[in-house]
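User
Here is a favour to ask of a fellow structure person. I am asking you to supply a protein in sequence and structure-token form. Please set it down just below, with no commentary around it:

Assistant
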Amino acid sequence: MKFLPYALTDDRGVVAFQVDGVPAVANADVAALVTQVKPAHLLVHFPWYGMYELAPRLYELQRRPGWACQVHLMANTPEEVAGFRAAGLPTLHAPASLFVSERVFRIEPVTKRYDSIYVGHFRAGHRQHVKRQDLAADISRLRIVTYPVRHEVANGTFVRHFLENFPELEHAEINDRYLSPHEVVTAMNSAAVNLALSSVEGCMYAFTEALLCGLPAVSTMCQGGREQFFHPKFVKVVDPSRESVARVVEQLAGQEHSPEDVRRFALARLEQFRAPYVAYVAGLSGGRPDDLYNRIFGSEGCPSSLCFDFERTSLTPILRQISADGSMSVN
């Protein structure tokens, strides 16, 4: 899901934006967005768990002369709320997965060709990747959907490079080009079980998307937000080992599940987060909650229809400074 700024109100007085995972870049993007768009309120969503370092930076932004925007922090998990509030900014428990569209991700009557599917941003050159896709190695009929590196799509080398790093996944079907949202939905519906194997990340949109497609899931314990969509019947939590993942996938794939029941659970859980979020936006804007709900969640593809772009700060000098500080390496 591409998370450009979302105009939650007609006048762009309340804007939602998911920041970059690098605090310095995120801080610069927020400054650029507020300077250009001038919203009265900016609701900041986070891509990763525990980005507490960013909150004080955003607080300091508000102290700039002429700054007229109130920044609000949207925590993906309950335990992050206190950490963000400590920075002195208003905070709401509002996982970014509440924006996943149930109109795009839906049940399709297609043949189950795979035992399981794993959807995520996998990087072929990172052996110790946050997604821990190597834990899926013992699953026989495995589908992997990822976002190939652009130049490797052009020269047809993405899958080869991916498998050079993960030879244990050679039996999996891996996309070698970008897939449309509809193609992702069809791929999800073609699997019996969804996979979520990271220990820490953000709220993991693909986890909620697959539930909306009616797929039960096998997950490891995690921090970041997807654990709020666990269900004792539809989501089985396993130890982070290949044997455990493969065994429980086989068990879950062999059981009868109603896709409609899985989807209903996901919709109900989304509503638990959407209702207070809309009420919060209504409190900031003075708008009617029903009208705001329909604007944000009520039409095909929403909230993507609310997206607008802005001129981001050039990342090059920021990343060079980060590299010079030694906090991360930039190739």
User: Anything to note?
Assistant: Residues 114-266 form a domain with the Rossmann fold fold (CATH 3.40.50.2000).
